[in-house]
Design goal:
It contains 17 helices and 22 strands. By secondary structure, it is an alpha+beta fold. It has three domains: about 190 residues, 2-Layer Sandwich (Heat Shock Protein 90), CATH 3.30.565; about 120 residues, 2-Layer Sandwich (Ribosomal Protein S5, domain 2); about 150 residues, 2-Layer Sandwich (Ribosomal Protein S8, Chain: A, domain 1), CATH 3.30.1370.100. About 15% of the residues have low confidence. The site of magnesium ion has 5 residues, from helix 2. Adenosine-5'-diphosphate binds next to helix 2 and helix 4.
């Protein structure tokens, strides 16, 4: 057989290698920002056009590069950051593999200007698809400016693989957050298509978090601090009552590098156990300083996963310090009328049915609201009635033997279990319905019907509502704006505020702020929601955001109404997210179990 093995040409090898480091515009952003930080810049500008597909430019005021260095920088494995393998165990820089610039130049058109403090003139170099084009002397201030154009122009398969501009921009923002949060001492400016997305002055970690996520987050942060022989750890956790449904506020940094660690994440989550509602995630910003000898950063090309020698100890330390801080700062909740009263006790405890039903000594026949209106608060129930505390018992003073009537005629056909399920009887047994999923199904079908019939009715708000958003939320809103309008929301964005003047008739106008947060975070965490159309996607998102949640007490009318609506649905088997909605317990099963 003839010889068949040959060496790949450099530019092909480079393209393949580039794939490991550069997956999308956001990867370029990460590498360039990190290079600027490694070059000791104190001010960094990020300019993005066309979500980074057209152009990504990073301008820094760092140490710059000499004429020879600028040429060498684009060779694979060319780095000024380590000299030998031993250095791998004392890394303090972001980069060290010498791959980023070579990778970027293999799959884009690059123009770089750089000047050191000693040199009089700057050097400019152009390189595209690994081909050196020209190098000349140029005029530029000290530092480096690098522009990366038409990413993947020569690898159409990868270019086609990129997501929509909105999604790519969101990834860029994530990377920007990570670098920005790691280096609050550095000033950052981020412009997208010429308009400013972020202007982050240099400051403390706390200020930086506030500048990125909005000032309101500052008062929600609980500080952490602990010096141990294993590591120095500081940072913040977000108060549990402000936990989010998305995981957008979970950050670990090790030696000034953002990392992902499911293991350490678990340590934090377990410290939050019992304090968060279903589907809510803790927020945290944890900065770990650790001897570089005890970690290995070099296990992944993007350097976001690392190995710790003292993993178990670190886990224990983080868990206990988070618990400690949550305990210490979880004093009486501040007066906040929007606060969810469900948060007064840890959820784990709430799920349990108290063994002693507390008795309340009141006259149950006293009713100051004779013409009882549904919305008027009810008189407190007597102790035995509180056994049925989930039930809304009509107060009828004309009934002489009220208690008897209750026991016989009003025996509930429907009741709520654990504030999460609605239980009802059928001819052959019991039906146990997940209230949240059933409600999602009802809302989803309602939304779908009105979208199909194009009759999204909008109700005008008497008092327009203003909501302040973070930059990240504004980006998310931008992605949904057209769809939200089509669904009956009348919303205008002005700077970092939304002004809502109309909402779909199905919604109520209470807690609009929370509803929008929910919609945006559901959207953020649901890139994967499978939908065959925009309308379907919106119906899913809204049904999720508007549905009754677990841990919500429903009146008997509400339970009955939900059941009626639910059984009028076209599909009653699964919720819009393909989960089972109810189970049945049949007579035979009961008999078998009792055998
Ligand atoms: P690494 O960062 O792993 O060393 P890169 O390919 O990202 O590899 O960069 C190669 C080299 O180019 C760096 O080691 C550094 O010396 C130089 N360099 C890159 N970007 C800059 C910059 N913005 N300012 C000064 N030097 C830079
Ligand atoms: Mg680098």
């Amino acid at each position: 057989m003839a010889d068949i093995i040959s060496l790949l040409p450099d530019h092909v090898a480079n393209q393949i290698a580039a794939g490991e480091v550069i997956q999308r515009p956001a990867s370029v952003v990460k590498e360039l920002l990190e290079n600027a930080i490694d070059a000791q810049a104190t001010e960094i500008q990020l300019l993005i056009n066309g979500a980074g597909k057209t152009m990504i430019q990073v301008i820094d005021n760092g140490i710059g590069m000499s004429t020879t260095d600028i040429r060498l920088a684009f060779e694979r494995h060319a780095t000024s950051k380590i000299k030998s393998a031993d250095d791998l165990f004392s890394i303090t820089s972001k980069g060290f593999r010498g791959e980023a610039l070579a990778s970027i130049a293999a799959i884009a058109q690059v123009e770089i200007h750089s000047k050191t403090a000693e040199d009089e003139m700057a050097s400019c170099l152009r390189i595209s698809g690994s081909n050196f084009e020209d190098q000349e002397v140029s005029v530029a201030p000290k530092g480096t400016s690098i522009a990366v154009k038409n990413l993947f122009y020569n690898v159409p398969a990868r270019r086609n693989f990129l997501k929509s501009d909105k999604v790519e921009l969101r990834h860029i923002i994530y990377e920007f957050h990570r670098v920005g949060l790691t280096h609050p001492e550095v000033k950052f400016i981020f412009l997208q298509n010429g308009s400013e997305l972020f202007d982050l002055p240099s400051g403390t970690h706390r200020k930086r978090i506030a500048n990125i996520f909005g000032n309101k987050i500052e008062e929600k942060l609980i500080p952490l601090e602990e010096m141990t022989s294993v590591a120095g750890i500081e940072g913040f956790v977000v108060k549990p009552e402000f936990a989010k449904k998305s995981r957008g506020q979970q950050f670990f940094f090790v030696n000034k590098r953002f990392i992902k660690s499911p293991f350490l994440h678990h340590a934090v989550s377990s410290a939050f156990q019992g304090l968060l509602r279903d589907q809510y995630h803790p927020g945290y910003f944890i900065y770990i300083q650790i001897d570089p000898k005890t970690i290995d950063i070099n296990i992944h090309p993007t350097k976001t996963e690392i190995k710790f020698e003292e993993e178990q100890n670190l886990y224990a330390i983080i868990k206990s310090m988070v618990k400690h801080s949550l305990g210490m700062f979880q004093v009486a909740p501040v007066l906040d009328f929007d606060r969810d009263s469900n948060l007064d006790t840890p959820y784990d405890l709430q799920q349990k049915i108290p063994s002693n039903v507390p008795s309340v000594e009141v006259d149950s026949s006293f009713n100051p609201f004779q013409n009882s209106d549904k919305n008027i608060p009810k008189a407190p129930k007597s102790s035995w009635e509180s056994l049925y505390s989930e039930l809304d018992i009509p107060n009828d003073p004309s009934t002489k033997n009220k208690e008897l009537k209750l026991a016989i005629e009003q025996t509930p056909k429907v009741f709520q279990l654990l504030r999460k399920f609605i239980v009802t009887t059928t001819r052959s047994g019991l039906l146990i319905i997940d209230q949240q999923r059933a409600h999602q199904r009802v809302l989803y079908e309602k939304f779908l019907t009105s979208i199909t019939k194009r009759n999204m009715l909008s109700q005008q708000l008497m008092f327009p509502k203003e909501i302040e958003l973070s930059q990240q939320q504004i980006a998310l809103f931008g992605e949904l704006e057209a769809n939200l309008n089509a669904m009956g929301f009348v919303v205008k964005q002005q700077d970092n505020k939304l002004c809502i003047t109309g909402i779909p008739a199905i919604c109520n106008d209470k807690q609009l702020g929370k509803l929008f947060e929910d919609i945006l975070s559901t959207h953020e965490s649901n890139e994967q929601v499978e939908s065959f159309s925009q309308g379907d996607y919106m119906a899913k998102i809204l049904s999720k955001s508007l549905s009754i949640k677990g841990n919500t007490t429903l009146s008997i009318e509400e339970q009955q109404a939900l059941i009626d609506d639910f059984f009028a649905c076209k599909d009653t088997l699964t919720c819009p997210f393909n989960r089972k909605i109810f189970i049945t317990l049949e007579k035979e099963e009961l008999e078998k179990k009792l055998n």
